[in-house]
Design goal:
Cytochrome p450, alpha+beta, 14 strands, globular
C-alpha cells in the first residue's frame, strides 16, 4: 500500500509539486491513517473561515478528541477558551481584547519589538566563519521575549523562564502530540497562569505600559475582562505570537539562503522588506498542514461528505500556492500585490495581532540581513528535528556565516 500523499508532502523538502497534484485531483482529500480531511484550494480554505454552521475551532467537537484530565488547567482552557465560547461571547471578548491593539498600543509594541530584536541581534553580528544556530540564538528567542516584554514580564531570569513555559505549553495543544508533551504542557500552563494572575492583580492597582494593563482595564460599555479571561487571552496570544513566529522567521531565513538574488535585493532596499512581507510569508509558508476546524454537522464539500465530528485541516500552503489566485505561485515575486493572504485567518476570527506579527517578522528579517552576509550557507548536515505529532519540528538552524562584505 502506497503512503498517503499527505505524509509524502510532509517529508518533502519542497511539497509544492505534490500539493499542486492533490489540489487539482483531490482538493478535499481524506488522510485515512489519521482520519481527517485536507483542504487545499484557496477558495475552500477561505470559505470555511465563514461557515460557523458547518465547522468550529472548538476541538471538543472532534470525534478523536481526548479531553484533558478533569481538574487540570489544560481541561479548564479547553472548556473556556475563546474557541469554546458561543458566538456572542466571542464577539464581546474580541471587542474587549481589541483594547490591547489600539493604534497607540501597537506603536508602543513596535518600539518594544525593535528594542528586543536589537538586543538579541547585537552579539550575533560580525561572527564571520562561525556556525551559528540562528533558530536557538535568534528566531526562538525574539518572539518569546517580545511576548514577555509586551505582557510586562521584566527582563532577566523571569523572561527566560517565561520563554521556556510558553514553548512547553504551545507544544501540548498540537494534534497527535505524544502524551509526555501534553503532560509537560499542563505543568507549564499551571506556572504560566499563576504568573499571569499575579501580574493582573499588580496591574489593576499599578497600571504600566503593557498588554496586561490594557486588558485588565479594558471596558466595553459595562463589560470588562475577568482575571480568568485575561489568562485565557494571554495563553492564546502566547500561542499565536511565539512558536508560529519563531518557526516562521527560521523558515524565511532558510528560504532566502536558497534565493540569494532576492536576499541581496532586500539587503539593498530595506524598505522593500515591509512592503513585500506578505509575499515573503505567502511564498515561504508552503507546508501542506494548516489550521484545524471540526465539523459540527454533516455537509458536502467538493463532492465529499464531511461527517459531524471529523477534522478538516485547512492547508495554508495549499492556499498560498494556489495558481487560481496567485500567478506563478511557486516563484518569489517581491513586487507581487498579495491578496487574501490566509495565514492570519479571515472573517470573525481574523488575528487581531496580524499587523504586529508582520512588523515583528519584518524587523527580524531586517536584523538577520546584518547577521548573515553574502556567502553564508545553511549547514543541513547539522540540522536536528523533534517529532511533534504530524510534523517534525526543527530544533535548530545552523548557518555558516560568510566573510565580511
Amino acid at each position: 500500500m502506497s503512503p498517503d500523499p499527505f505524509f509524502e508532502m510532509m517529508e518533502a523538502q519542497d511539497p509544492s509539486p505534490l500539493l499542486h497534484q492533490l489540489r487539482a485531483s483531490d482538493p478535499v482529500h481524506r488522510v485515512e491513517p489519521l482520519g481527517f480531511w485536507l483542504v487545499t484550494r484557496h477558495d475552500d480554505v477561505k470559505g470555511l473561515f465563514h461557515r460557523p454552521d458547518d465547522v468550529t475551532h472548538d476541538k471538543r467537537k472532534w470525534e478523536q478528541h481526548v479531553p484533558a484530565e478533569p481538574g487540570t488547567l489544560l481541561r479548564w482552557f479547553e472548556d473556556h477558551s475563546l474557541f469554546a465560547v458561543a458566538a456572542e461571547d466571542h464577539a464581546r471578548l474580541r471587542r474587549l481584547v481589541s483594547a490591547a491593539f489600539t493604534p497607540r498600543a501597537v506603536r508602543r509594541m513596535e518600539g518594544q519589538v525593535r528594542e528586543v530584536i536589537e538586543a538579541v541581534a547585537a552579539p550575533l553580528r560580525g561572527r564571520h566563519g562561525e556556525v551559528l544556530d540562528l533558530m536557538g540564538d535568534f528566531t526562538n528567542i525574539v518572539p518569546n521575549t517580545v511576548i514577555s516584554r509586551l505582557t510586562g514580564v521584566p527582563p532577566g531570569d523571569d523572561e527566560v523562564r517565561f520563554r521556556e513555559l510558553a514553548q512547553s505549553v504551545i507544544a501540548g495543544f498540537l494534534p497527535f502530540v505524544p502524551s509526555e508533551l501534553k503532560e509537560e504542557a499542563n505543568t507549564g500552563f499551571v506556572e504560566l497562569a499563576g504568573w499571569v494572575r499575579e501580574l493582573c492583580r499588580k496591574r489593576l492597582h499599578d497600571p504600566q505600559e503593557d498588554m496586561v494593563t490594557d486588558l485588565v482595564h479594558a471596558r466595553d460599555q459595562d463589560a470588562s475582562l475577568s482575571e480568568d479571561d485575561v489568562v485565557l487571552m494571554l495563553a492564546g496570544i502566547v500561542g499565536a505570537g511565539s512558536e508560529t513566529t519563531a518557526l516562521g522567521g527560521a523558515a524565511v531565513l532558510r528560504m532566502l539562503l536558497d534565493q540569494p538574488a532576492a536576499m541581496e535585493r532586500l539587503r539593498a532596499d530595506r524598505g522593500l522588506i515591509f512592503s513585500a512581507i506578505d509575499e515573503i510569508i505567502r511564498f515561504t509558508m508552503a507546508s501542506p498542514a494548516g489550521m484545524m476546524r471540526f465539523a459540527v454537522r454533516d455537509f458536502d464539500l467538493r463532492g465529499k461528505t464531511i461527517r459531524k465530528g471529523e477534522m478538516l485541516m485547512l492547508s495554508i500552503g495549499g492556499a498560498n500556492h494556489d495558481p487560481a489566485v496567485y500567478e506563478n505561485p511557486d516563484m518569489l515575486d517581491l513586487d507581487r500585490d498579495v491578496k487574501d493572504l490566509l495565514n492570519f485567518g479571515n472573517g470573525p476570527h481574523y488575528c487581531l495581532g496580524a499587523n504586529l506579527a508582520r512588523q515583528e517578522m519584518g524587523c527580524m528579517l531586517d536584523a538577520l540581513l546584518d547577521i548573515v552576509p553574502p556567502g553564508s550557507r545553511a549547514r543541513e548536515d547539522l540540522s536536528e528535528f523533534q517529532d511533534s505529532g504530524i510534523f517534525k519540528r526543527p530544533l535548530n538552524l545552523p548557518v555558516e556565516i560568510g566573510p565580511p562584505a
